[in-house]
Structures are given as structure tokens and as C-alpha cells.
């Protein structure tokens, strides 16, 4: 139970950290006053929501005396349903903020030529965050498929392929 809780926490914080990067760039673009304090608020909210979700899930299992059948998320379990709801919400927020930020950055590149290099660096940061977000999301989905369908050979190969891809990208 503790291993699953820690694994869920690290995966959700890993996914939401890329959302926090987008939100920090978004607060810089919207010129919110006192953006330094808003950065701390953004990071706190984005990492706090997954932590509250995971610990709430852990407490639910403990208080209801439910037994886990696996070290990861099994189909038709409360843990999987809560995890998927949080993943879907974070993904929808990420997509919405990604398109908002890239749209604003595209307009800034056209309107302010002297700051073009800085804006392009921000745009590349946003694009890298979206690539990493997508890769981690693919890893999470493939790991859930693998745990729940270990008898299907193609699922074993796709899980191994995703892990090799992630290792080759992050290993360098």
C-alpha cells in the first residue's frame, strides 16, 4: 500500500510539474502584479493537488480495510478511478494552458521583434514541457495496461518500448 501511494504521488507530481511550468510562463505573460509570490502559489497548488489526492486515496483504503491486489493500479479499483480522474483534469488543464501560452507567445514574437530571442526561449521551454508531459502520460497509460493485461504479448512489447524510449531520452 505504501509503495503504491508513493508511486502514485511521484507520477502525479511529475505530470503536474510540467503544468506548473506552463502556469509560471502564463503568469509572466499576463503581467500579474507580484509575479514572484504567484509563482510560489502556482507551484504549491500544482504539487498540492496530487499529494492531497494520493493521501486521500491512501486513507480511504486504510479506513475501509480494502486490500490491494497489486502494487499498481488495477482495473475496476477505487485507486485507478481516482487516479484517472486527476490525470484527465490535469491533462485538460495542460492542453488549455498550452494553447493559450503558445498563442500569446506567437503574438509576442510578431509584435516585439527586439525581444524575439527571449520569447523564442520561452516557447521552446513550453514545447519541451509538452513533449515531456506527453511522454510521461504515455508511460502511465502503458504501465496501467501492462499491469492489467500481462497475458497479451503486444502490451508487454509496447510497455518495454515506451521504457526504452524514455530511457534513451532521459539517459542522455
From TrEMBL:
Keywords: Membrane, Transmembrane, Transmembrane helix
Membrane-spanning parts: 6-26, 38-58, 78-99, 129-147, 153-171
Protein name: G-protein coupled receptors family 1 profile domain-containing protein
